[in-house]
Amino acid sequence: MDKIKILGLLKEKASVLQFLQKQGVVELIETGVSGSEFSSELSTQADISDQRLTLQIQEEEILKNQTRLNSAIQTLETNYANVPQESTDFRISINDLLSVKKRESEILDLLDEMKSAEKRKIDLAAEREQIQREQDILQDWRQVEIDLQQTSTQRTLVFLGRLEKSALSELEQELTEFSIVETAILTLDSGDTFDLTAVIALREHELTINQLLQQYDFKYLPIRKKGTPNQIYRSNERKINKIDRIVVELETKIKSIAARRLDFCLLSDYYAVTLEYHSASKIPADTLYTFSLEGFIPRKVSGKVKKNLEDDFTVFVEIIELKPEDEYPILLQNKPFAGAFQTILEMFGAPSTREIDPTPGLAPFTFMFFGMMLSDVGYGLLLTIGCAYLIWKAKIDTSTEGGKLVRMLFLCGISSTLWGFIFGGFFGDMLTLMSDNKIAFPCLWFNPMDEPQKLLIWSMIFGVIHLFSGMVMKIINEIKFGKISNIFFDIVPWFFIIIGLGLMFGGSSLKITAFNITEIGKWLAIAGAVIVFLFAGRAKKNIFSRLISGIGGLYGVINYLGDILSYTRVLALVLATSVIATVVNFLANMVSGGIIGWIFAVVILVGGHLLNLALSGLSAYVHSSRLQYVEFFGQFFEGGGRFFKPLNYKTNYLKINKDE
Amino acid sequence: MEVLDKLGPFFTLLGAALAAFLPGLGSAKAVGRLGQAINGVLSEQPELFGRALILQALPGTQGIYGLLSFFLILTRSGLMESGFSADITWYQGLLWIAAALPITIVGYLSALHQAKVCETGVSLIAKRSDQHARVIVLAVVVETYAIFALLASVLAIFSLS
Question: Which pairs count as long-range contacts for A440-446, CB under 8 Å and 24+ apart, including other chains?
Fold first, then answer.
């Protein structure tokens, strides 16, 4: 990583920044020379703040439009996803992306059109619903030939509504009891269980009548419009038809806009790129006529970028080589295989500038442990084929977080297939069960279901190898830091102790008779322990506190024991995958027989195995990551760095085609 | 003692049933609680569904481990082939129960504790969806102990048969 300093003419600042954004290899930083201090003699404060203000207003406008575009894209993607698009090419060259500026107002007009059409549609739907509710009520009243607005005379009131048939006589009785005899109850029309009634009463009785009617559950007709119910019903029908026609028109209009939704994506991404550019150009350090920029640039390209800048612009470019002690962002560089596993490190955090990139050490072990945990030829092949389809057929962007994961899972699938052959698993015991024990899937090493203890030992042995490579990483780091003595006092003795203890307790199973292997193990462990005891506290002057540190150092054996035992999860997850697969096969076998039985069996097999692949795959992924984070990184990883984030074109919807 | 002798298959099935039902119960509680928390977040940010679903699935594994132990006990003890009339003494039956205990207890409790980690994780990814992977790792640290308990049960089951 190098530091780049650019000094140039202010009128060229925009094009220089655009050039840098296009290259995508420079991370700009605040220079530390604040704008005002740097420019007080040459440029007035007012000038600068004026510029800032315009920039800010522009930016707010862009943000607002971008939000509207994104919400429109989401609406179109959810409601009109099946509308064929005019163009489905999501790859675009940088120049094409930038030239969308010319069509900005056209696309924004289209957006407004779509938004207003959407709003109109929603309003109309609400209106239609209200009319429809009126229709439902009017339906029963269509035979009644009275004007609904004509509901009172000077002295009388007319109450229109529905009354249950059973309530009629009681109501009449009650009216006589209250001695309101000047009241008429007219039955206008009869339904199955109810009558449509008009209650005509004197105005002075309004209150009492209302109370009585409510008591008998009289359903008032809420419509008071001019015309007979049938006339109103007809006119409502015409209104609904009209609304439906307009909605269809609006739908076609929105669909025609939906066909051009790529334009929305395009403009939204253009805005994203512009905002990125804006945030870079806001870094102050301008005078009236010049600007200065500072940033980080990978050493590989720094010379080329300097030359290009100086050729095309009136600028002075200075490249400063950085040393590990300086603080700079981290850009990881790995071979394709290890690079595929870089995503695991990226999730954890960046290493510091001084230490080794752990990816090459992490990659083979993630490959191995994931494969072991999902060891099944069937699952492995499904995973590999699925990921291969995504990478080469669906052409997903492998530079995104999800794309990197798919690339890693592709390799993990291959590993699972290999381990499937080693442990002899093809969708669990599918072949054996379906062929009535006639065919057994070949197993190259041993079947963990028959010899779980063997796999228990082996997963711990693989764990020790993993831990040892973590310790080798530590040795490399100590060499980088120039602390050679640490290697001999803090790391090497632990190799002795772990190997020694391993030989002491497990050496007899190696069946070596030429020499006493347990005895060798014992002395190796003792030698290691003595070194740790004597030198763990070597920084301490006081002899007693040094010895106490020595005992503390020996306590580290518990940590290593815990780390090694942690690898036994490999066995548990191997068993989990294969036992669940066996259970699925068992259930399918139980229902099979007859056509319906076989249909059920196939449903169980497909659903069950896909579910197991998803769950066991998730377990394998998270647990192999955990073994890296806690056990492997625990040996050496310092961390605390941050990843390199160059100024470039970050788009949300489209994929930039760099070649053009 | 005659009655006791007939209890062998019953004890064995009891052990298997414990292993299936308690971790399953724990997982169901955990997954259910998480589902509620996730629904709240989805009302604001429906695009988080995929990430949230993975978090919800995490404490569901304990139930699977329980089911796994159930099947292993049934097949390894011979209950399944013999149709529950296997020749198992009451003492052996108790041993099968003991073998089922680690996954039964730790499976149940770890599912609940893992759900708590995931629940706070859900509110974390609602604010910062890029922290998704770290939430998973934190939850998996809890699951480690369910796995160790499963391992203990499985090793006991294999050595009993």
Answer: A441/A377
Q: Domain tally for chain B?
A: 1
The CATH number covering residue B90 comes to 1.20.120.610
Considering only CB atoms, A615 lies closest to which of B57, B151, B158, namely B57
How many domains does chain A fold into?
A: 2
- Encoded amino acid at A538, one letter: R
Domain that holds residue A204: 149-220
In a domain, A321, yes or no: no
**Could you say which of A347, A568, A618 has the minimum Cβ distance to residue B133?**
A347
A521 is a domain residue? no
Question: Quick one: average pLDDT of B78-92?
Answer: 81
| A397 domain residue, yes or no | yes
Chain A contact for B133 (CB, 8 A cutoff) = yes
Residues A585 and A459 in one domain: yes
Residues across chain A: 660
Half-sphere exposure of A530 (CA within 13 A, CB side): 6
A178 burial class (0-12, 13-18, 19+ CB within 10 angstroms)? middle
Cβ distance B141 to A626 less than 8 Å, yes or no, reads: yes
Residues whose CB falls within 8 Å of the CB of residue A448, separated by 6 or more in sequence, listed in order: A375, A423, A454, A455, A571, A574, A575, A578
pLDDT for A99-137, tens place per residue? 888 888 888 888 898 889 989 999 999 999 999 988 888
A399 falls within a domain: yes
Q: Domain ends where: A170, A190, A220?
A: A220
Q: Given an 8 Å threshold on Cβ–Cβ distance, is B54 in contact with A572?
A: no
Q: How many CB pairs under 8 A join A and B?
A: 64
Residue of A nearest to B148 (CA): A569
Under an 8 A CB cutoff, do A623 and B151 touch?
A: no
What kind and span of H or E run contains A196? strand A194-202
| Rounded Cα gap, residues A19 and A309, in angstroms | 8
The ipTM, to two decimals, is 0.75
Distance CA A108, CA A270 (A): 13
Domain coverage including residue B48: 2-160
Give the model's confidence band at A45: pLDDT under 50 very low, under 70 low, under 90 confident, else very high: low
Considering only residues A375 and A538, tell me which one the structure prediction assigns the higher pLDDT: A375
DSSP B77: T
